[in-house]
Specification:
Blueprint lengths: L2 H29 L4 E2 L2 E2 L34 E5 L4 E5 L4 E3 L7 H4 L9 E4 L6 E8 L9 H15 L7 H4 L1 E5 L5 E7 L4 E5 L8 E7 L14 H10 L3 E3 L9
Antiparallel strand pairs: 1-2, 3-4, 5-6, 6-7, 7-11, 8-9, 8-12, 9-10, 10-11
Amino acid sequence: MDPDAVRARARTNRRRTAALVTAAAVVTVAVSGTVLVAGRDTSAPVSPVGTPPSSETQSPSTSPVTPLETDPVGWTPYPSTRYDFTIGHPPDWTEIPARRDWAREFDVLDHLSPAHEAFLSADGHVRVSAWNAPLDASTRYESIRYLVEWVEDYCEESGNSPCTGIADRAVELCLEARDCHPGLLVPFKDDVQAFFSGGIYAQDAMTVVAVWRPESSRFVASYGGSQRLLEAFLSTMEVWPSATPFYERR
């Protein structure tokens, strides 16, 4: 037989044998529940490129979240001599006192400003801040329209978002149980903040209270969300959503 023909037939037989061995290996591995692709085990799901290992948002769950107690009865009162107000916080939260007065040119962009009276949750994942932003008392009006315009300007300056549609999504607040001076609670993309002025508070400042987590954050799920947590803090300052029945304002 021609030597070249013999060598060609041998190469053909080797290729057939290798193909049969590979096919058998794939079938065997597939039956065991693992598939190898280019040497990589794909039996476990692969995260999309750029997806962080954990997320701010809550993971879907079939079991309901049971909120922690947000009734401020029993909370620890914190008197701010710097801003002349008292605010309560859960007993196991850490107080971080303000080190100086809030100044727009230094602090408007800083949610960790040393001018905030701040409170940190026991697990360290939730921060709540309260401070006074100076304003011109001669141009201040006790009206929702004034508050919306002030918050829109403040939102732009602070780099928050969205700064439009505030009047539509804001919750109107009552400052003081009986007199009901106006205030606003506004959800933003990354936080929830409340704004009020006058009444038992400063006439020449806007008092701001912020929960620095979005409503969808998993870190505030146990409190019933950022808004519910903020409302609990506000109630310790005699500030409630205007829809709160009078007998619940305590």
